[in-house]
Automatic annotation (TrEMBL):
The lineage of its organism: Bacteria, Bacillati, Actinomycetota, Actinomycetes, Pseudonocardiales. Pfam families: E1-E2_ATPase, Hemerythrin, Hydrolase. This is Cadmium-translocating P-type ATPase. It is a multi-pass membrane protein. It comes from Pseudonocardia abyssalis. PROSITE patterns: ATPASE_E1_E2 (PS00154). Residues 631-765 form the Hemerythrin-like domain.
Amino acid sequence: MEAAMRFGGGRTLVEGGLLLATFGGLLAGLVATAAGRPAVAAACWAAGTVVALVPSVGWVVVALRRGRAGVDLLAVLSLVGTLVVGEYLAGALIAVMVATGRTLEGAAERRASKDLRALLEHAPRSARRRVGDVLETVALDAVRPGDLLVVGPGEVVPVDGRVADVAAALDESVLTGESRLVERAVGEAVRSGVVNAGAAFGLRAEATADDSTYAGIVRLAQEAGADTAPVVRLADRYAAWFLPLSLAVAGAAWLVSGSAVRAVAVLVVATPCPLLLAAPVAIVSGLSRASRRGVVVRSGGALENLGRARTLMLDKTGTLTAGRPVVVEVAAAPAWRPDDVLAVAASADQLSPHVLARAVLAAARRRGLPLSMPVDVTERPGRGVSAHVDGRAVEVGKRPGPAPEEGWARTALGRAVLDGTAVSWVTVDGQVVGAVLLRDPLRRDAPRTLRRLRAAGFRRLVLLTGDRAEPAREIGTVLGLDEVRAGQSPADKVAAVRAERERDVTVMVGDGVNDAPALAAATVGVAMGARGASASSEAADVVLTVDRLDHLADAMEIARRARRIAVQSAAVGMGLSLVAMAFAAAGLLPPAAGALLQEGIDVAVILNALRALRPGRDETPPLTPRTEELLHRFSAEHDTLSAVLPLLRDAASRLAIGPSGDALDAVRRAHTALVEDILPHERAEETELYPALAAPLGGPEATATMSRTHAEIERLTARLGVHLALAGDAPLPEDRVEDVLATLYGLDTILRLHFAQEEESYFTLAAPGTSRSTRTGDADLRRPAHRRYRP
């Protein structure tokens, strides 16, 4: 990397020296002409021409050795021609043009690749390791898993690990492209490459430097741009026929007119600088812009292929779904409440590393449930956890025998089958008291992202998953996929990708080790690399360093725009050169004027190619900090308010069995949660969030349907309240049970759909991560600001 930087610095000096020498020769000749010394002026201009001619010959030789047609040959012939026919001023102007073109090209590439170079320069080279009370600085290669490192303020986290002592405030913008501070609590994972934006903290290393996240990204960045993009190779092919065409026009002009000056003028304006500069500058600009969005593209070829892809194939787990199961419902026996069941299960699961146990524990903490420390904990692989909690024997997991036959248990099993959820049974002192239903949820950004990808040019979307057919088909229906293939082995995925690749340019997206062969088989493999799946990242052409699928849509839009600008710049530049060649062949454009015109074309083409660095007009405008903060706040409230939905289902289930006093109590609990939590949340959205979203979404009509849904939720809640007021303390009359059930089911359906629509349409607009202001150590801050929900 350092050698490359030194080479870049040496190239800058050569470019600067060449520009200074040629411009000096031109200026000295002009001064001599003004002083009435034409011979001195001619000598100065000829000297400037020779200064440019020498390196130009070298560039032609290098190009020929690389098997290219020598596209710099026209510049050499132009310089030689001006010397032969005595057009020394034109030669000096061409020399300045050549030097300026090289300088502009270098400057454009340096600007376009600034973000990629910054990624390389950001890489740490040492770490501070703590052994006992001794702190020593060691080379990064000496760090081993298990080492305790100290990361000081402003330092880069050197390897992947976990926070060891105090919470860490981190700037993850290098990996994610988002400039939000994120706090990681003790025990949470931290990826290498992020910057410590707070006080010093301890880091327990979990990987060597070479196996860490940032090292993999650096390797990809070093390869970025090394491969020639197809659009750049296309420019080389254009130049291959442009060269003989230019020579033919110059020869014809000389033959018809008998003037060698006309031939030289044709060669001067035929120099294919626009063609040579436009494509690489635009492609490198696209690579740079993609890196800002947390998308590392391995090569210019991958970026260009991404821009013309038409088939998208996706894995399910970790790609379209979150890859982390969550509790969607808690079913309870008649003598138990859902929160009591969840609290017991979470208490027993506290010491378990299993992914389902972590999901149960996270759900209990979100609801603020009090937990007890378990003792005598035993975990049986594939079966679950048994422990003693507050003196009672608790088991959480699979049932050793048949499932309970009680009505509530059959209802829970039916919902699990219909919703494609896993069931974790909870037993206390040998009695089954409840069931926890868990599911890997769809990513919030998945529907919006797939709509954007269709708009960007994908004609066919295919799901490849090793999962069962039922949940796969459900996801395919929700997302509007063209085909769903379930039960796929890694070999099946490779075969499917190869078959699609035979028909069209194909992109494959995955995140696991088992996806690596399919990623390698695709035209463009895209890895969800935020979680450090090194095998898939190494096999992929594109790596998303932030755990958001919508950045793939960003990369697609960037790729299409970069390719469009590259082709546009090259075509316009060539067209202008051809027009200028016609005028020169007709004797209407002398060599000196042609050189000035060609210089203007070069500058215009480079500036146009650099447009690929800037956002396109169709990109979503950035949100204000206030709007983004509101989105994060209401999104966090959704996470907490989701606890109300099981109350509605539980009340309906109890009421369906019979209008008992227990059923009426469940309905009252649901109504209280609606009045004291849901409705204040919806009113706050109406008065705070929706007005803030009007500008970025193009007006208040964008949220009008959501406002109408709020009104319906309030109407049904009021209807439920009327039923409870009429019933008083007596059980519900039989003639009202049906309407109360319809109201409960209606509220459940509307709230679930409403939450999903807001999360998909609005909350995905906000940058990922949690701001420092929302992570202060108070767990209740994730609850609604108007009331801390406790059922």
